[in-house]
């Protein structure tokens, strides 16, 4: 595969050519310990996947360059179990040529209410972690060793203290507690690869430090979800827009792909705060 050259537009215009160690991209995407980075792709008209219902049909070589670097810099990839099934996730490894960036294996952590683990992952040599709530605990513990199951039920999220069993009954997961459990295992650089419902929950909980979004120069029409999906506020009213700060923007001129890194919880120096999961 011949990888494309990228133009860095923000913060200063320059060329980012591919090289074996991707030194320029590593510097642009350095991952702070304790930070949660989400990486998503969307078409120009907002679709999170293509006609085959997977994101692979809307990505390209420019997206692949950045995707590889982000995985190489992470300790753990967190993904919703539904996305893991749809995208056919298997045991993860460090990308070829970039294994020197992190000595430890790249781990995978599934978030699931049901506790159902895709068969491809149950059969893997290195098993995933599963982050689940009370309803999914038994199924996850039946499929995986106890040290790979993180049970963190969410309770009392309606804020009035009057219905603390509601979220347990739904099987909701305390995502902050799950990230803290991963951090206690030394997995402090977290890369979330979706899907849209998990990203929505992480954003609602204020746990995402930075959001990397590739804009694919394609249109897919109505049907596919946005990169953030869910029911929205219970009242039906739109939540107030949250702010984001652009750290950098890359452009692949041949296809027109745009790759943006947005800081959602930035420190004074513009870097991610590194508070998520820590």
UniProtKB/TrEMBL annotation:
<dbReference type="Pfam" id="PF01872">
    <property type="entry name" value="RibD_C"/>
</dbReference>
<dbReference type="InterPro" id="IPR050765">
    <property type="entry name" value="Riboflavin_Biosynth_HTPR"/>
</dbReference>
<feature type="domain" description="Bacterial bifunctional deaminase-reductase C-terminal">
    <location>
        <begin position="36"/>
        <end position="233"/>
    </location>
</feature>
<dbReference type="GO" id="GO:0009231">
    <property type="term" value="P:riboflavin biosynthetic process"/>
</dbReference>
<keyword id="KW-0560">Oxidoreductase</keyword>
<dbReference type="InterPro" id="IPR002734">
    <property type="entry name" value="RibDG_C"/>
</dbReference>
<comment type="pathway">
    <text>Cofactor biosynthesis; riboflavin biosynthesis.</text>
</comment>
<keyword id="KW-0521">NADP</keyword>
<dbReference type="InterPro" id="IPR024072">
    <property type="entry name" value="DHFR-like_dom_sf"/>
</dbReference>
<dbReference type="GO" id="GO:0008703">
    <property type="term" value="F:5-amino-6-(5-phosphoribosylamino)uracil reductase activity"/>
</dbReference>
<protein>
    <submittedName>
        <fullName>Bifunctional deaminase-reductase domain protein</fullName>
    </submittedName>
</protein>
